[in-house]
Specification:
Helix 1 packs across helix 6 and helix 3 crosses helix 4. This protein is an alpha/beta fold. About 40% of the residues are buried. The chain has 16 helices and 15 strands. Helices cover about 40% and strands about 20% of the residues. It is elongated and about 75 Å long. The two termini are about 30 Å apart.
Length: about 425
């Protein structure tokens, strides 16, 4: 069998030996055949390690390296070649788990998979049990009825569970970067996995580091593949990422190393544009404070004109109800659209107050980590932001003073939320990554 391709347009007439050889020695070609055409010889090695290794191992690879795709291929192969093994797949959240279980199911349902299974087992593959978090086929003859593949979020219960193979994938993420409590919780969960691993079983970990003291410091036999080794990201893409990400995040996610968080993230603000450039903006964003002289209430109005983001910002060291009249006056002055307000803290009370005054106001629930939101969305467009005349100096200064441990973040939070609302849920480059 050639290592160049598998022809899926016709019956392969595979022998049992050839079918096993494909899965054991050329799994990346199997990946191509089921639709994952970007897998390379590097991924071939990764998948072989996942399927055939015996020791606990760890694969650290940069974002966008298709490591999770490699895991999904490996999980499908294990179901075919080792049908009586019980495998658990764990990610940080239940929703992330469901996505991969569905992907494995799709792989098993492909025509090429049916040909391979028939060659190896002399029978057609049928999925006999399928849910968002479990998968079983007719290949197993285990009388206990335990699912071949079980998905678990890292916050789910592990009591009474036992598995021959355990895969963790991205159980370390941004939450571990910004929260020591989350780092410790993830470590506790990972240590518990040793208790549910059957004798002779193994744990295979994949992911990207976020913090020098995250769970990867516990994971054994690490192999690291940074963005320069894999060749999966072009030099042009890397340069774009370096410009549009803070250095510590780029180092962690792409170079797999840790450097201190930046003291200065937003440098050299552009100021002095005509305030008329923000007139008739679609929204006015309010980041509300609810106690005088504690936090700040921030107002942001922004318009994109000819690839520049023109920003008008106000900042009051007062509770929002103390400055409501001024807020409404600013919207009217610029003839801007309705207000947008986060509802996490006040359950939508600010929006109701504004509506009582005849204003249009919409609310949203914020679920994204604030630091990551700011250094992703605001950093993404920082070189194209121009603050218009009349913007409070304190508003601009709070943004320029912002870092991971800043005491006040109302102005950068408001502007980052505005950028995200108007100009995309994620930066454009992420559309091409995993």
């Amino acid at each position: 069998m050639s290592r160049s391709s598998i022809n899926t347009s016709q019956s392969l007439n595979l022998t049992k030996e050839t079918a096993i050889e494909i899965l054991m020695t050329m799994p990346f070609l199997f990946g191509h055949a089921v639709g994952f055409n970007l897998l390379t010889e590097l991924h071939n090695d990764w998948i072989i390690q996942m399927v055939c290794g015996r020791e606990d191992e760890t694969l650290q690879a940069h974002r966008g390296s298709y490591k999770t795709t490699a895991v999904s291929i490996a999980l499908a192969i294990i179901i075919i070649l080792y049908p009586n093994d019980k495998t658990m797949f764990m990610r940080k959240s239940d929703d992330d788990v469901k996505e991969i279980i569905a992907q494995v199911k799709k792989i098993l349902e492909q025509p090429i998979t049916q040909q391979i299974v028939h060659a190896i087992h002399g029978m057609s593959l049928k999925i006999t049990k399928s849910s968002a978090v479990e998968l079983t086929t007719n290949l197993t003859n285990d009388p206990r009825g335990t699912a071949q593949l079980v998905g678990k979020g890292s916050k789910g219960s592990l009591t009474g569970k036992h598995f021959d193979r355990i895969f963790t994938d991205d159980i370390v993420n941004v939450q571990d970067r910004v929260s020591k409590a989350e780092r410790e919780r993830t470590k506790t969960v990972y240590q518990e996995l040793q208790n549910i691993k059957n004798r002779g079983g193994r744990i295979f970990n994949t992911g990207t580091p976020w913090h020098a003291e995250d769970c990867f410091c516990l994971m054994p036999n690490p192999q690291k593949f940074d963005c320069y080794q894999t060749g999966l990201i072009s030099e042009q893409q890397l340069q774009w990422l370096k410009v549009h990400m803070v250095a510590s995040l780029f180092a962690a996610n792409y170079e797999l190393k840790h450097i201190a968080a930046e003291d200065i993230i937003f440098k050299d603000p552009a100021i002095g544009a005509d305030a008329s450039l923000v007139e008739q903006a679609r929204y006015v964003h309010i980041d509300a404070a609810y106690e005088d002289n504690k936090d700040y209430t921030a107002l942001t109005i922004c318009r994109k004109v000819d690839d520049k983001y023109y920003v008008y910002g106000r900042l009051w060291h007062k509770a929002v109800d103390s400055v409501k009249v001024e807020i409404i006056a600013e919207r009217k002055r610029f003839n801007a659209g309705g207000f947008i307000c986060e509802k996490n803290a006040d359950k939508g009370l600010l929006a109701k107050m504004l509506k009582m005054d005849g204003e249009r106001a919409n609310t949203y629930h914020e679920s994204e980590n604030k630091y990551i939101k700011i250094v992703t969305f605001l950093k993404w467009v920082w070189n194209d932001i121009v603050f218009v005349d009349g913007t409070d100096k304190e508003y601009i200064q709070q943004i320029c003073d912002y870092n991971e441990f800043a005491e006040h973040d109302d102005a950068p939070d408001s502007l980052a939320s505005y950028i995200r609302k108007l100009y995309g849920k994620t930066p454009e480059y992420q559309a091409t990554w995993e």
